[in-house]
Amino acid sequence: MILPARPHHTGHPGYSETLPALEESAAAARKLVRTALAAWYLEDLEDTAILVVSELVANAVKHTKSRLIRVVISRPNERFVRVGVVDKARVMPELPKPDEDLPTSGRGLLLVDALAECWGTDPHRWGKQVWAELSCEPTR
After folding, report:
1. Beta strands per DSSP E along the chain
2. Would you tell me how many other CB atoms lie within 10 Å of the CB of residue 89?
3. How far apart are the first and last CA of the chain?
4. pLDDT digits over 114-129, tens only?
5. Model pTM greater than 0.70?
6. What dihedral do alpha carbons 61, 20, 131, 101 form, nearest 10°?
7. How is residue 117 annotated by DSSP?
8. Thinking of the domain 8-93+106-135, which architecture would CATH place it in?
9. Which three-class secondary structure state does DSSP give residue 76?
10. Please, which residues bridge with residue 84 across strands?
11. Cα dist from 32 to 16, 71, 78, 114, 139, whole Å
12. Neighbours of 135 (CB within 10 A)
């Protein structure tokens, strides 16, 4: 059995945790998001960030063959929180086309796209990180 690492502050500021690539890991990812947002006094983002991380974890679990994923929550600047999931698959995610007839699953990236200020993929030699940035600024 693989035991997940304890969440730890990664310095930028940020939090990360390595988890088994299993559906059940979404619960630990949501807990990490809550911890980071509470530390930054950004609880107002909790519902959105939890939904985004759940979708990103689900995509990584479904589309990777790796045993582990890494969830990363960071503050690239004062305006945004970045929620990311790292996996070892090199296949880049694609947003479904607007006219594409989707079953009840396969809509996760559409949801991320609708909720996030922006999202993207950082390719690495060994895999990728899919991330979404959420605005910390109040909507006007």
Report:
1. 8-9, 14-20, 68-77, 80-87, 118-124, 127-135
2. 18
3. 48
4. 999 999 999 999 899 9
5. yes
6. 10
7. S
8. 2-Layer Sandwich (3.30)
9. strand
10. 72, 131
11. 8, 8, 19, 22, 25
12. 14
